[in-house]
Amino acid sequence: MVALKKTVLIIEDDEILVEMYKEKLKNEGFRVITAKDGKIALQRVKEGPDLILLDILMPSLNGFEVLKRIKSDLDTKNIPVIVLTNVGSESVDNDKNLALSLGAVDYMVKSLNTPESVVTRVKEIL
Q: Does an H or E element contain 83, and which?
């Protein structure tokens, strides 16, 4: 029996980053769906991804608002969410604590993590 591919939803407004993460994940056998803003993301979540990579700074709805809505919906609250952002510096601890308190399973800073390390983390969680 062939195992079904796990699906990762990438919620990110930077096209270059989307393509880079998408390529890495596909090379590892994942199915990838994407959303470039918070409103589209909330529609895509209904497709039932196995895991979500979520940026914070995006048009229409920011990542914290998207995370709140995902976690408050009975149909989507159990989907693991990794916050993947460049929001950093002195606010990183506050943002990390907020993301984790809202239900994220991890908080990764893009500039401190290679795409390979992000894929490794996705595999660990799934």
A: strand 81-85
Domain count, the chain: 1
pTM of the model: 0.93
Structural domain of 29: 1-82
Q: State which H helix or E strand residue 52 sits in.
A: strand 51-54
SS3 7: strand
DSSP 8-state secondary structure symbol assigned to residue 104: -
Question: Which CATH number does the domain housing residue 34 bear?
Answer: 3.40.50.2300
The angle formed by the CA atoms of residues 78, 83 and 88, to the nearest 5 degrees, is 155
pLDDT tens digits, one per residue of 81-117: 999 988 655 667 888 999 999 999 999 999 899 999 9
Q: For residue 10, is it left (φ>0), alpha (ψ between -120 and 50) or beta? A: beta
